[in-house]
Design brief:
- The complex is a heterodimer.
- By secondary structure, chain A is of the alpha/beta class.
- Chain A has 14 helices and 14 strands.
- In chain A, strands 11-10-9-12-13-14 form a six-stranded mixed beta sheet, with helices on both faces.
- Chain A is flat and about 120 Å long.
- The two termini of chain A are 63 Å apart.
- The C terminus of chain A is likely disordered.
- By secondary structure, chain B is of the alpha/beta class.
- Chain B has a four-stranded mixed beta sheet. Chain B has a three-stranded mixed beta sheet with strand order 1-3-2. Chain B has a two-stranded antiparallel ribbon with strand order 4-5.
- In chain B, helix 1 packs across helix 4.
- Chain B is globular, with a radius of gyration of 26 Å.
- Chain B starts with 12 loop residues before the first helix and ends in a 9-residue tail after the last strand.
- The chains are: A alpha/beta, B alpha/beta.
- At the A-B interface, strand 1, helix 1, strand 3, strand 4 and strand 5 of A face helix 1, strand 1, helix 2, helix 3 and helix 7 of B.
- Strand 5 of chain A pairs antiparallel with strand 5 of chain B, so a sheet runs across the interface.
Chain lengths: 427, 511
């Protein structure tokens, strides 16, 4: 009897991927809720690591006719002391419990593991890039070239050798061009031939073949093909994200933490939309400097507060390194709202004249102390200024945050998919 | 001196070949087994999880519930709550056994002996499998089912197909013929039939027929109840069959989907009735083969001890007050009974001669066992062959739990002279699917009136349906039937205990 032994280990994995996607699609709203809940408990850094979520089984339930209650009879092993006619107390001892029909139907919550991608997808699923500030910039696309078949004319540099040879070969076969072997064979036959008459016949044949060879060229201009290229508009696939933060003495650790969380979310979000995302950290007191991430969040600094310095720095960096036609520019500013009184004018001017025209999106996040006092106090000087700018038509988004748990809702609020935003394709 | 099959724990494909050949020699020559050709496939843990979620089949149609099970198994596997099975074996011809790549050489030998010869013999010879399953055709049929479901999704939309399959799955446990019909199931024929039907529909399609005026439809009110029930084949306990044949507004493809689910449910029906026997057979066979190989010197003492370790784990039966207890372990009970039969056949005691006059002292162990394996299912097997010695060994006792009884749960019988027969009867009944599944059947349809479908649930021993689940299943049933459905729970005196009525959900706009 033949026995087949087959190694299936190399078969492509993920056979059940399709079923899994169906399951996730079906449980989408449930899973999404669970993802949001999980992500609130987590550190922002770990938010996107995927992991286990728990969803209620309701809705994913597969019902069956099941019976319950009534009189039950069971035979069990391991009798130690019972004799016929004994009575056992019913008080919930494990012994008398029927082992239900396992099958995983009985548990009320359902835990499973999401991969990182699945998690991020669900996490950011209902978010969309914001109402883009400058449409003309949003649609500025560089042009790229892309292969687009073959053409009969073109520059010599673009000759496609393989295609040309292929066509030539086909033509030679079709027209029955004598091959080199054929001619050599004939020549050999002539050399070996002793009979004069036959030799003449062969020679005539050879002559004919040679003439034909001449008539049918090895490569004809007809055969030549050039690679064709087409210019295609290429959407800008890179983004730069400016993180501006006030690090003057009035910013507490808590406030910085809030800002950091917001930046993280923004980063993840952009990362999903763009192939390449750069981050520029600019911190400022009364003067601004570009720093690395570590210094940005943890480096000590002190001094007064001049917001315009940060905007000026950002403007310069954009001019030097990030051409707005090549880069999608996003900026998020976090501050406790302090700004020196005399700086207001300059800040407003810089923002409306220099920064906003090149930005896709500018968000201002005003962070407050834990306890929510930020909402009770009168508006800060920066808030008042920005609010005025916004009312006069500048497109910037602003929110106040004072609790960690508010970060995601605020973020969500800023980037929520809106009907109006639908008409614009995401870059 | 025979050559060793392998040394240590490592194996490669040549080792597997040698192991299989050696097992085959013992299985066919010494044990006289009769098996389907074997196909052995080595798979990874992930593939094993895959197989779990599609009820062990190598190919299956796509449905979200399998994804759910996969996610569930994967989560518990990752957390270490669950070990994976060493093997999965499929009742098909050729008989496919999956081996996990992590297994040691000893484990592979055990698994090959267990699955490729033990289960395989059982599948090929047991009367239930012969009657209900078509091992030759199953893989082709599953392939057909997968493609058919896929085509339906393309033609009628994923949502629609999913809705039908959801409903069919809910009724799966009641989509089984419990009594053999006249015709043996032929799944290959089944597949061709579906194709023919589709072709026929396409060939005879003529839009003109739509415009031909219809005559007055025949009135049905005159038909008597008896006649109507006969026409519809009532009472009918196979709900899926009934819907497929009689639901008024199902599209042909929906009927075909119901048919597919029904066939698959039917295919698994024998397995649920023979858990103890099937595992008992396979365990007994692997034990015999391994022992034989060891005696021949083809397995080292060390490897044999490794085998005994795993074997003992598999046939471990915790006692009722043990934390690990979750009912009778079919491996333990089955293996113990097989060995007990061997003992009765070769060296019976007086008690055995009294209880089993037919087989006691017959001396042809394999002859008796092969006969048992071929002609019994769990219920009849236990009812016939559970010996007093084994009941004493397991210290079995019977509990009777009547909620009305204030004093508590009564110990009805124990493993003594007075109790043997009662304990045995009760244990056999526990393995009788007739008692496990709710007894639900279609009894009537009001065809001339509001087309309400009426089902009865015969309540046994006061055990009624779980309300939430029953309502959900009935909802699915009503959606397929497209008119009201009533389920009436009646006890053995025809007293109505409870009545459910469910109306179909409106069908969302769809073609």
């Amino acid at each position: 009897m033949a026995i087949h032994i087959i190694d299936r280990r190399l078969n492509p994995g993920g056979k059940s991927l399709e079923n899994r996607q169906r399951f996730l699609r079906r449980a989408k709203s449930l899973v999404q809720g669970a993802v949001k809940k999980t992500s609130q408990e987590r550190d922002i850094k770990d938010v996107l690591e995927g992991g286990e979520v728990t969803i209620p089984l309701d809705g994913m339930h597969e019902p069956r006719f099941r019976r319950e209650g009534g009189t039950r009879d069971m035979v069990l092993p391991g009798n130690k002391k019972f004799i016929e006619g004994d009575y056992l107390q019913r008080s919930g001892q494990g012994s008398a419990k029927d082992s239900g029909p396992g099958e995983g139907d009985s548990e009320d919550a359902f835990r499973f593991v999401l991969s990182r991608d699945e998690f991020v997808d669900l996490f950011l699923d209902d978010l969309e890039l914001p109402d883009l500030a400058k449409r003309k910039i949003a649609q500025t696309e560089s042009e790229g070239i892309q292969r687009a078949g073959y053409t009969t004319s073109g520059s010599p540099a673009n000759i496609s050798v393989s295609r040309t040879v292929k066509l030539a070969l086909a033509r030679r076969i079709a027209l029955k061009r004598p091959s080199k072997d054929e001619i050599e064979e004939l020549e050999a036959a002539i050399a070996a031939c002793t009979d004069e008459d036959e030799r003449l016949v062969l020679l005539a044949q050879l002559e004919k073949l040679k003439a034909k060879t001449k008539r049918i060229p090895f490569i004809d201009p007809l055969d030549i093909r050039y690679r064709r290229y087409e210019k295609v508009p290429r959407p800008v696939a890179q983004a730069v994200m400016f993180c501006l933060m006030d690090v003057s003495g009035s910013m507490s650790e808590h406030m910085k933490d809030l800002a950091k969380r917001f930046y993280m979310l923004l980063y993840v979000f952009l990362k999903r939309r763009y192939k390449h995302v750069e981050i520029v950290f600019i911190r400022h007191t009364d003067r601004a400097e570009e720093v690395d991430e570590q210094t940005f969040f943890y480096g000590p600094a002190s001094g007064g507060t001049l917001v315009s310095s940060a905007l000026q720095a950002m403007h310069e960096i954009v001019r030097e390194r990030f051409n707005p036609s090549d880069w999608n520019i996003y900026a998020a500013q976090a501050s406790d709202g302090d700004n020196s009184y005399s700086d207001g004018e300059l800040t407003g001017l810089l923002l409306t004249e220099k920064i906003l025209p090149v930005c896709q999106f500018f968000a201002y996040l005003e962070v407050g102390e834990a306890g929510g006092s930020a909402f009770d106090l009168s508006d800060s000087s920066l808030w008042t200024l920005y609010d005025r700018l916004r009312n006069s038509g500048a497109s910037l988004s602003m929110r106040k945050v004072s609790e960690r748990s508010e970060i995601f809702p605020v973020f969500h609020d800023l980037f929520q998919r809106r009907e109006a935003a639908q008409e614009k394709a995401a870059p | 001196m025979t050559e060793r099959l392998f040394e240590g724990a490592d194996w490669d494909f040549h080792t597997l070949q040698r192991i299989t050949d050696a097992c085959e020699e013992v299985a066919l020559k010494d044990l006289g087994l009769d098996v389907y050709p074997n196909q052995i496939e080595v798979i990874t843990a992930e593939q094993m999880l895959d197989a779990y979620s599609s009820v062990g089949m190598p190919l299956f149609y796509k449905h979200w519930s399998f994804g759910k099970h996969f996610a569930y198994h994967e989560a518990s596997y990752r957390k270490g709550l669950m070990g994976l099975a060493y093997e999965i074996v499929i009742n098909s011809s050729p008989c496919i056994s999956y081996l996990m790549e992590e297994n040691t050489a000893t484990m592979q030998t055990l698994v090959i002996a267990h699955a490729a010869f033990g289960h395989n013999h059982f599948f090929k010879n047991n009367y239930l499998f012969k009657q209900w399953t078509d091992a030759e055709g199953i893989l082709d049929y599953l392939d057909f089912a997968k493609n058919y479901v896929m085509q339906c999704e393309e033609r009628y939309g994923r949502i629609e197909v999913e809705r039908t399959l959801d409903a069919a799955h809910a009724l799966m446990s009641h989509g089984i013929d419990r009594y053999p019909g006249k015709k043996k199931l032929d799944l290959r024929e089944e597949e061709k039939r579906a194709g023919r039907r589709r072709r026929h529909e396409e060939e005879v399609f003529n839009d003109l027929w739509r415009t031909v005026p219809k005559g007055a439809s025949k009135t049905r009110s005159a038909i008597s109840l008896e006649r109507r029930r006969k026409l519809l084949g009532l009472p009918q306990e196979n709900l899926l069959y009934f819907l497929e044949k009689s639901a008024p507004r199902l599209a042909p493809w929906q009927r075909e989907l119901l048919r597919i689910v029904r066939h698959i449910a039917q295919y698994f029906y024998p397995q649920s009735q023979t858990k103890v026997m099937n595992e008992g057979t396979a365990t007994y066979v692997h034990y015999r083969i391994m022992t034989q190989l060891h005696q021949q010197g083809r397995i080292t003492d060390g490897n044999f001890l490794e085998f005994l370790g795993s074997h003992t784990n598999v046939v471990f039966q915790p006692e009722f007050d043990d934390q690990r207890f979750s009912g009778f372990n079919p491996y333990a009970l089955g293996f113990a009974m097989m060995q007990d039969i061997e003992r009765i056949v070769t060296s019976p005691s007086d008690e055995d001669r009294e209880w089993f006059p037919d087989i006691a002292g017959k001396n042809d162990v394999m002859g008796v066992l092969r006969d048992v394996w071929a002609n019994y299912r769990d219920e009849s097997f236990i009812g016939q062959f559970l010996s007093p010695k084994l009941m004493r060994h397991f210290r079995m006792f019977h509990l009777h739990d009547d909620p009305e009884e204030r004093a508590g749960i009564r110990v009805d019988a124990i493993h003594d002279e007075r109790g043997f027969r009662r304990v045995r009867r009760e244990l056999a009944r526990q393995h009788d699917v007739g008692f496990i599944d709710a007894n639900i059947e279609v009894v009537d349809v009001d065809l001339s009136g509001d087309r309400r479908l009426i089902l009865h649930h015969r309540v046994i021993k006061g055990s009624q349906l779980n309300e939430t689940d029953a309502k959900r299943v009935l909802q699915h049933l009503a959606d397929l039937w497209t008119y009201d459905v009533a389920l009436i729970e009646v006890d053995s005196n025809d007293k109505v205990l409870r009545e459910y009525v469910v109306s179909p959900r409106p069908i969302p706009a769809a073609a």
